[in-house]
TrEMBL record:
Protein name: protein-serine/threonine phosphatase
EC category name: hydrolase
EC number annotated for this UniProt entry: 3.1.3.16
CDD domains per record: PP2Cc
Protein keywords: Hydrolase, Manganese, Metal-binding, Mitochondrion, Protein phosphatase, Transit peptide
Residue ranges occupied by any PPM-type phosphatase domain in the UniProt entry: 100-352
Biased composition (Polar residues): 31-40
Cellular compartments annotated: Mitochondrion matrix
Length: 378
């Protein structure tokens, strides 16, 4: 029975004396408080559950719909909001914290770890992530680790387009490495080279990736992998055509792997100067993409010690089962070795707004994989 009915019943059944007035006051007081509470605006913290209703909770999960549908923030995102970026782009953008980025690099069955990686807050607005997989010695990877960020930082002050910045930086680093080796003509490092996969994240939402070689960058969106790079191998028709037009040739080793001039399993790299006249170039392919914080879980950069033994969706699924990016990076690098990879295994995992949202992704893995060496040299 409602409070209004109770009030009417009390009014009709009791004489109008002091006691009845007192009882009516007791009944009306909660009614007034209830009306005031209904007119008062309800405030909710980002992590607080709301009661279900048809507009904001269509699946009765107790969670509101995302901000890109109704203009409200998804309460599954616990990261603080980047206020300047959010104002600049007109929508809430969560902060990416370097302290939460996961990194791992294992030597595997090699005598030396020639992989290098780097993460940094390069400028107030731009974050820098990079992996370099050296071959023929670690010198080229070491040089990129030391100078690539510096070249990019200098170019960013003059050029707004990040894809253009990455293209210029890769070419300038390659030239600088050539000059560096000019002072050591008898050094074994003259034939050294490296892959380079670099990602720049500006304002927490603008992601640009540049890559040469077969290290990869991938984005997990709605639990599915989105490849941001394509391997530069002689198997690609466009890459093979450039090599042949430049006077180079393609051979296959005993494992069936194609190689440029019988020794290099990639068609683009930094270094490898003895093959530059044969069509091996340092110009990267770039890709720019805008992040969707409520759908994008993470960015992963990997070297071929992982890529040659685990496919991209499998990497995405394994990471989605982990509690945090650091655990994910360690698990992926170790799992690649357990599956039979003999190469160095390096990975960077950068969490975004939807981290942990897709833990229900398919955890099944394929065990029918190729257990061959992932070396680039024949």
């Amino acid at each position: 029975m409602s409070r209004v009915c109770l009030a009417r019943l009390a009014r009709c059944s009791r004489p109008h004396g002091h006691n009845s007035v007192f009882q009516m006051a007791l009944i009306q007081q909660p009614l007034q408080q209830n009306r005031q509470s209904q007119t008062r605006r309800q405030l909710h913290s980002p992590s607080e559950r709301r009661h279900s209703n048809t507009r904001f909770d269509p699946d009765s999960s107790g969670q509101p719909t995302t901000w890109d549908s109704f203009g409200i923030w998804d309460n599954r995102i616990d990261e603080p909001i980047l206020l300047p970026s959010s104002i600049r782009y007109g929508k809430p953008i969560p902060k990416v914290s370097l302290s939460k980025v996961g990194c791992a690099s294992l030597i595997g069955q090699r005598k030396e770890n020639e992989d290098r990686f780097q993460v940094s807050q390069m400028t107030d607005r731009i974050m820098y992530f990079a992996v370099f997989d050296g071959h023929g010695g670690p010198e080229a990877a070491d040089f990129c680790e030391k100078y690539m960020e510096t070249f990019i930082k200098d170019l960013v002050s003059e050029e707004e387009n990040l894809a253009t910045v990455l293209t210029k930086a890769f070419l300038e680093v390659d030239k600088a490495f050539a000059k560096h080796l000019h002072f050591f003509p008898n050094s074994p490092a003259t034939n050294a080279g490296t892959t380079a996969t670099v990602a720049l994240l500006r304002d927490g939402i603008e992601l640009v990736v540049g890559s040469v070689g077969d290290s990869r960058a991938m984005l997990c969106r709605r639990g599915k992998v989105l490849k941001l790079t394509d391997d530069h191998t002689p198997e690609r028709k466009d890459e093979k055509m450039r090599i042949k037009k430049s006077g180079g040739f393609i051979t296959w080793n005993s494992l069936g792997q194609p190689n440029v001039n019988g020794r290099l399993a990639m068609t683009r790299s930094i270094g490898d100067f003895d093959l530059k006249t044969m069509g091996v170039i340092a110009e990267p392919e770039t890709k720019a993409i805008s992040l969707h914080p409520v759908h994008d879980s993470f960015l992963a950069l990997t070297t071929d010690g992982i890529n040659f033994i685990m496919n991209s969706q499998e990497i995405c699924n394994v990471i989605n089962q982990c509690n945090d990016p650091k655990e994910a990076a360690q698990r992926i690098s170790e799992q690649a070795l357990q599956y039979g990879s003999e190469d160095n295994s390096t990975i960077i995992v950068v969490p975004f707004g939807a981290w942990g949202k897709h833990k229900s992704s398919d955890p099944s893995f394929s065990f029918s994989r190729s257990f061959v060496s992932s070396g680039r040299w024949a």
